[in-house]
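Late entry, iron/sulfur cluster complex.
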Amino acid sequence: MITQEQIANAVCEIYKEAAIILPTDVKNALKNAYDVEESDIAKLNIKSILDNIDIAEEKGIPMCQDTGLPIIFVKLGKVEVENLQEGIIEGVKKATQTVPLRTNVVDPLTRKNTGNNIGKSIPQINVELSDKPELELTVFPKGFGSENNNKLAMLLPGEGIDGIKKFFKEAIISAGGKPCPPTVIGVGIGGSSDMVMKLAKKALLRPVGDKNEDKRLANLEDELLTIANDTGIGPMGLGGKTTTLGVNIELADTHTAGLPVGVCVQCWAARHASITLKDE
Ligand code: SF4
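Prediction complete; structure with ligand written out below:
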């Protein structure tokens, strides 16, 4: 059986990793962006981000003061697991103290801080079932400078792919420099209104630059990336060629009367880390 203690230790470990070490695909995309940019201001901004990433790793400290809202993706396979939710909560509490993480979780009305990054329905735990004999945990700390720029559209079916592109462009322009670009953008298409936003967020777990297996979506990802970068918003919103490092799409089938589209905006601090536990 995978015990509560193993889950708590694993969550704490990957929370620390996520807060301090940016995934290699994002780092490489930022380095490419530095080479591609021509203006001094765009280069300077990306250089500052890259220096920031190196300092965080060297000193073992979080790469940004906003260590995010705790979001956990779980792939629950065919294994016996003891107190999954309690283990995750314990892990988040432990990470908050030991990394340490900024305490970001508040009551939405009183704004009173809970003091340990735990709250009503927080950490947000998304569970997906799997056939594998293992438990996969992914910590996805979500900064709100970017989260505040997410958008949902319930398009009419007739608006089609052109409607998706138009809505996407409006979302990128409305976000401007607020989400600390260069961003990574997750796009959900289909499902229902709540499902499409989850798809958009889940799309951010795919590596930057990873080609979608569905050729239609791979082409659309390339087109949306060009649309985002053609806005010229650039690094930190100060102009340049790189507004967005990558666009990832997740799709689900939907109702014949609708075309839900979700845009989930992720800042350059596209943090996540995973671990797989087996029942041994
Ligand atoms: S949007 Fe991202 S990089 Fe900007 S402050 Fe928030 S977490 Fe940090």
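The longest strand covers residues 244-254. Will revisit in the morning.
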